[in-house]
Amino acid sequence: MSETSPKLRAELEGIPTYKPGKPAAAGGPVAYKLSSNENPYPPLPGVLETVTAAVSSFNRYPDMACTSLMNELSERFGVPLSHLATGTGSVGVAQQLIQATSGPGDEVIYAWRSFEAYPIITQISGATSVQVPLTAGDVHDLDAMAEAITERTRLIFVCNPNNPTGTVVKRAELERFLDRVPSDVLVVLDEAYREFIRDPEVPDGVELYRTRPNVCVLRTFSKAYGLAGLRVGFAIAHEPVAAALRKTAVPFGVSQIAQEAAIASLRAEDELLGRVGSLVCERNRVVEGLRAQGWTVPETQANFVWLRLGERTVDFAAACEQHGVVVRPFAGEGVRVTVGETEANDIFLKVAEGFRKEL
Ligand SMILES: Cc1ncc(COP(=O)(O)O)c(C=O)c1O
């Protein structure tokens, strides 16, 4: 047998591995997972029934064009079918967007810290990441991002609200930024947490896309709609971009179960958005609680909060785990804590209070 291993692309070397949020330990002291920005509510009974019925035909390939779901989305957002594309979660769609736009020698700009998949999917395609630090207030520095554009720039992510800080960019500043971006550079507004936004000054990306052919909006069923495990997300973009997304899609990537669950969720939107409303109340309670304890917490419009703990990050995460909640540490920077069940949020607040006293 030869000792040589198969030749792999050099770009794969050094790719940071995606760290999924740690699960809650089965049977152990840990009871709550606040590490993946998931929806803590179980599936709605109606959605569960739809999924259960769809299970009986998984010997068949799914509808590759996601026809019924696309029709539903087209109506829901008032956009033509040719402006829609689906994928295996919005992260799948984000990867398709990079494949469609960027290769070796090209640059992809995004804020940092932001969603940790951006550097991974950029490097896989052989393109170069240009990371623009967040401002001191943990917000996208859109002026610096505009200044980072070169003739090699192909795609810019604006994560709004930003993962992991929860911070947002507002209408006037985002429009000013979009006006500065050349029309042949794609701007991807990643709105995975859109439904949790309550600040009226944050623009709806779908409105911005309508008059801007270089803007693409990413949405997901994973967060507000509670379908993280079924993997379905979508993009709204003008025809050339949406068509490129269909070319770069993995054939049959979105299962029939996921498609039907997504449709059922859109039809149960009132109930699902009611749950989002409860999570937003919990979010506000958590933020107020932390501030009352003396923490500086950036304004969050997502279903998570960000605590900048620097060198104490890992210790804080360990203390949370000891008390039964798993959070998401970014060593040396801070922790991102998903707003979950009330009891879980209470435990987190209690740990934060104890930790604060020790600082
Ligand atoms: C900002 C952002 N975009 C996209 C995603 C991807 O979500 P999904 O692939 O489940 O749609 C996430 C998930 O955490 C996220 O935080």
UniProtKB/TrEMBL annotation:
UniProt-recorded Gene Ontology molecular function terms: histidinol-phosphate transaminase activity
PANTHER family cross-referenced by the UniProt entry: HISTIDINOL-PHOSPHATE AMINOTRANSFERASE (PTHR43643:SF3), HISTIDINOL-PHOSPHATE AMINOTRANSFERASE 2 (PTHR43643)
Top enzyme class: transferase
A Pfam family that the UniProt record links to this protein: Aminotran_1_2
The keyword Cell membrane is annotated on this UniProt entry: no
Species in which this protein is naturally found: Streptomyces doebereineriae
Domain Aminotransferase class I/classII large: 33-348
Name of the encoding gene: hisC
Family matches, as Gene3D superfamilies: Aspartate Aminotransferase, domain 1, Type I PLP-dependent aspartate aminotransferase-like (Major domain)
Keywords from the UniProt entry: Aminotransferase, Pyridoxal phosphate, Transferase
Role this protein plays: Aminotransferase that catalyzes the conversion of aromatic amino acids and 2-oxoglutarate into corresponding aromatic oxo acids and L-glutamate.
Disordered: annotated span: 1-20
EC number in record: 2.6.1.57
Official protein name in the record: Aromatic amino acid aminotransferase
Biased composition (Basic and acidic residues): 1-12
Database matches in NCBIfam families: hisC, PRK03321.1
SUPFAM superfamilies per UniProt: PLP-dependent transferases
Family, as annotated: Belongs to the class-II pyridoxal-phosphate-dependent aminotransferase family.
Modified-residue entries (N6-(pyridoxal phosphate)lysine), positions: 223
Record's catalysed reaction(s): an aromatic L-alpha-amino acid + 2-oxoglutarate = an aromatic oxo-acid + L-glutamate
